[in-house]
């Protein structure tokens, strides 16, 4: 009997000791303060009154990024940031599932993914060995349970100062930072807004405007739009099995498009595979780079991609049957030259009953300019005369067109003077036998010919890797031409980089 009493007393002492140990554990806020590699997050907590009060008075789960995560973070450090790292209710690792609601009204959910024994919140990995710290915020009967998990990336809510979390459609329609207006217009044209508003958690891929040329926009129909949605799966780039195949909403009897993720040299891509197609939807694969990844929204995640999925490049008619202007307007790789020609009036020259030799810079040749300068502003009429002169350097008008072989034989090691629309100019044509490519020497600049001798009904096109622009253009800019000076500033950076 005595032995039984002693056993009971001993067990009671163990229970009391354990309870005392729990009560003496540091509250989460103080625990964070004592760890040097969490001090950046701790300092951010004090910028947010909501985060501080929640840790002092509420039952919460906290996701604390390590200092290194803040060093890599390129987003805004605002008051909403820490609020997006604190969720209602206390969730141990074993309890984490699907999504959590952050304490800040208007922010998107925190999406949870479990993969191969690891746990992610949005795109951040939870450091399991350091997580699952739990304690009450007060050491009395009024204390609320709280849990801390340590993560390796900062969670970026993107959207700020909102009354309610944004759906994918709301975000795309209102966003001015990602350049996706053309795809949004296609969504609205086919009245598919509900697919981007529906609950349930989807993954959305949205092509950037730059890739949505006239042809690709025309080919983007309701099936292609649906091929950019993986339903009922919220897939961030890190916690997704690479090369796994996912169904899209483009899944009908005669159109069937699948998607998969790829990771190559630290870049993420999405690949579409049209398994079943028709005359408009060609079978085959298209790979598109993810250029803005992991944008959380109320109903899933958005990835901005470099080109639309399921839409192949236009197969052009052989050019003897096309005049040069039609070639330019239909070729998706020559859009910039065509658009500048339209706005400046230069393209009217191509309607003359003449034969032309046209050195056309491909879009990629203008891409540095597009990165340095707002391309939409280039199309304002303020300096169209100057742009017309620049384009005129690329055009030779005559009775016969000149092939690259003809120009090469005429120039040899010396230059051949050609009459361009902007005046007489000296060209020397060289040939790289190893690469089997022609090179144009113009004003001591060497320019590769990307593709020579495109035949057209009224002449020849030679696609080149750089516009015909020099440093002297920059130096001789009229001072009164302010907007044009900005253009040449951008060009000067290209020439000197």
Automatic annotation (TrEMBL):
Residues 1-21 form the signal peptide. SUPFAM superfamilies: FAS1 domain. Keywords: Signal. GO terms for biological process: cell adhesion; extracellular matrix organization. GO terms for cellular component: extracellular matrix; extracellular space. InterPro entries: Adhesion/Biosynth-related, FAS1_dom_sf, FAS1_domain. Gene3D superfamilies: FAS1 domain (2.30.180.10). GO terms for molecular function: cell adhesion molecule binding. Residues 25-155, 165-309, 321-468 form the FAS1 domain. This is Fasciclin domain. It comes from Popillia japonica (Japanese beetle).
């Amino acid at each position: 009997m005595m032995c039984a009493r002693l056993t009971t007393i001993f067990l009671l002492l163990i229970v009391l000791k354990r309870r005392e140990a729990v009560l003496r554990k540091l509250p989460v806020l103080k625990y964070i303060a004592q760890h040097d590699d969490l001090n950046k997050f701790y300092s951010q907590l004090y910028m947010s009154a909501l985060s501080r009060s929640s840790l002092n008075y509420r039952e919460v789960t906290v996701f604390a990024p390590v200092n290194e995560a803040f060093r890599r973070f390129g987003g805004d450090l605002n008051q909403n940031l820490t609020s997006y790292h604190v969720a209602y209710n206390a969730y141990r690792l074993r309890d984490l599932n699907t999504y959590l609601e952050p304490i800040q009204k208007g922010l998107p959910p925190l999406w949870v993914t479990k993969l191969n024994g690891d746990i992610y919140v949005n795109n951040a990995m939870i450091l399991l060995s350091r997580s699952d710290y739990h304690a009450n915020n007060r050491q009395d009967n009024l204390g609320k349970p709280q849990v801390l998990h340590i993560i390796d990336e900062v969670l970026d809510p993107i959207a700020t100062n909102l009354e309610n979390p944004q759906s994918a459609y709301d975000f795309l329609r209102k966003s001015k930072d990602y350049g996706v207006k053309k795809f949004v217009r296609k969504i609205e044209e086919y009245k598919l807004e509900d697919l981007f508003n529906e609950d349930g958690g989807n993954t959305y891929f949205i092509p950037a405007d730059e890739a949505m040329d006239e042809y690709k926009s025309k080919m983007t129909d309701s099936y292609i739009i649906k091929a950019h949605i993986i339903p009922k799966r919220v897939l961030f780039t890190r916690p997704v099995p690479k090369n796994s195949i996912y169904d899209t909403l483009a899944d009908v009897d005669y159109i069937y498009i699948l998607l998969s993720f790829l990771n190559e040299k630290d870049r993420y891509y999405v690949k579409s595979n049209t398994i079943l197609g028709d005359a408009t939807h060609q079978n085959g694969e298209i790979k598109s780079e993810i250029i803005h990844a992991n944008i959380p929204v109320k109903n899933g995640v958005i990835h901005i991609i470099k080109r639309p999925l399921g839409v192949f490049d236009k197969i052009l008619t052989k050019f003897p049957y096309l005049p040069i202007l039609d070639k330019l307007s239909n070729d998706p790789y020559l859009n910039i030259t065509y658009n500048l020609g339209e706005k400046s009036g230069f393209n009217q020259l191509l309607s003359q009953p003449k034969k032309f030799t046209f050195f056309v810079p491909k879009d990629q040749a203008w891409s540095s300019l597009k990165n340095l300068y707002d391309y939409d502003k280039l199309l304002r009429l303020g300096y169209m005369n100057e742009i017309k002169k620049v384009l005129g350097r690329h055009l030779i008008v005559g009775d016969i067109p000149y092939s690259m072989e003809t120009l090469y034989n005429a120039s040899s090691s010396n230059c051949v003077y050609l009459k361009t629309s902007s005046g007489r100019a000296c060209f020397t044509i060289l040939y790289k036998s190893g690469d089997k490519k022609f090179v144009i020497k113009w004003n001591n600049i060497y320019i590769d010919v990307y593709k020579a001798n495109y035949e057209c009904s009224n002449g020849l096109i030679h696609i080149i890797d750089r516009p015909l622009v020099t440093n002297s253009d920059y130096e001789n800019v009229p001072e009164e031409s302010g907007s044009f000076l900005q253009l040449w500033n951008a060009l000067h950076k290209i020439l000197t980089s």
